[in-house]
Amino acid sequence: MRQALIVHGGWKGHEPVQVKDIFKRILEEEGFEVEVSDTLDAYLDQEKLLGLDLIVPIWTMGKITKEQCNPILKAVASGVGIVGNHGGMCDSFRDSVQWQFMTGGNWVAHPGNDGTEYVVNIKKGSNPIVEGIEDFRVKSEQYYLHVDPVVEVLATTRFPTADGPHATNGIVDMPVIWTKRWGKGRVFYTSLGHHADIMEMPQCITLMRRGFLWAAEGKKIAMQEQAESDKSLPNMW
To answer: Quick check: is 199 in a domain?
Structure first.
């Protein structure tokens, strides 16, 4: 059975407990055995993390030590998938550039704050994760992020919607959903989900389900590649 670890906590305004319940339900529907933790010390056990298929962080505006972060970096590089949303992954640890490097971006603003109505524009044909999903409207926070140029963008939203000093730069399409690689590991992120009710939208449920499955598949592929590599080694005995 595939193994997933959900670690939730940090700023309670993002409803980490409620989001955890949604993600756990989806994962269990897909046959994962899910462990849930409310402490970042869950990341300390390197061997345990290496045995997982998927890590799901739901932690906003916290602080992570090198001892907690390094095992995650190594586990994902080995093939373990990592999936998250909104501030739970890309506003987790503002002082950890390595975390930001791995996840592909970091939050810097949400002009208009909660209640901003905007459109999520799906990049049709970009990835099977978004296949069959049409553009949809959201009334929530519209995340402005600093984004790694290597990410594969699956959906965007157009700024400016709310006015502010950023508006004088003109129109820009900001990534909302992306994938990237970290070593052999797969990373999936969506900026949607300021509150748990957004993640219950049918589009978001589908996106998270597919994102979980896609990211977890990386572990299987990494293990297959390692097995093939081991077969090709000369027999020394």
So the answer is: yes
For 209, half-sphere exposure in the C-beta direction (CA atoms, 13 angstrom radius) is 14
Tokens for 180?
Answer: 């990237």
For residues 214 and 186, the answer to whether their CB atoms sit within 8 Å is yes
Does 120 fall in a domain? no
* Per-residue model confidence (pLDDT) at position 181: 98
Query: pLDDT band at 237, cuts 50/70/90?
Result: low
The total number of structural domains that make up the chain: 1
CA–CA dist 80, 45 (Å, integer): 14
Tokens read off for 161: 């919607």
* CATH for 216: 3.40.50.880
Cβ atoms of 132 and 126 within 8 Å: the answer is no
Please name the amino acid found at residue 4. Answer: A
> Nearest CA to 178 among 190, 186, 170?
190
N- to C-terminal Cα distance for the chain? 34
- Domain membership of residue 53 (yes or no) is yes
User: Which residues face 54 on adjacent strands?
Assistant: 4, 81
pLDDT at 229: 79
pLDDT higher than threshold 60 for residue 36: yes
Per-residue burial over 25-35, b if 16 or more Cβ lie within 10 Å, else e, is ebbeeeebebe
Domain limits for position 185: 3-106+178-232
What is the average pLDDT value for the chain, to the nearest integer?
96
